[in-house]
Amino acid sequence: NPCADEESDRRDPLREMKIQASGAGGWNIKGGTFGWTRNGGATEHRGMDFACPIGTPVFATHSGTVSNIRTGFSNDETWEQYKDRTGVGDNFRRIFNCGNIVDITCRINGGTYTMKYWHLTSVEATLWIGKVVEAGDIIGYSGKSGNATSADCGGPHLHYQVNYNGKPIDPSPFIYSVFNDEWILTNPCNQ
Fold first, then answer.
1. Most buried in the list 5, 17, 60, 119, measured by CB within 10 Å?
2. C-alpha angle 143-99-41 in degrees, rounded to nearest 5
3. Which residues pair with residue 53 across a beta bridge?
4. How confident is the model over 88-105, as pLDDT tens digits?
5. Distance CA 132, CA 148 (A)
6. pLDDT digits (tens, 9 = 90+) for 2-12
């Protein structure tokens, strides 16, 4: 409960996870953060990546309504294998890259935000589009679906992205923490 009265009762659902470095062997520690962090600053990263073993529970960071669910992707299945299995065309590649996903639309301080959770192994069975979830509810389980299978992604992880008015913004304030080579706890209720 990140907004509990007692500091000892607060728990950031993602804080125990570590930033996932991109690249085979984890060569780029900044690669898992938001911004122009990939490939020496040549590629934009629209969220934050958190290294975690396959099957780690993923919790909603904020209360809101499930606005999108996509499943049907397998851990370790490459784009070519997925194309062969399903017969989809190359125009489906961007959807494949995200893997299994849950999107939750939230109202925060008068604004509408969409929290995106990507590369899941599976989505919590009790979710459906339109369901209201509370902060801290399990929404799925981490994995290695979509382009997380690529050696360039550094292994199993959760991609967490926040969109405001359809555009990605830095998600670190929404997980109550900031990453500058170490975690710094910010206002736990995002006020």
1. 119
2. 90
3. none
4. 999 999 899 999 999 999
5. 28
6. 455 555 544 55
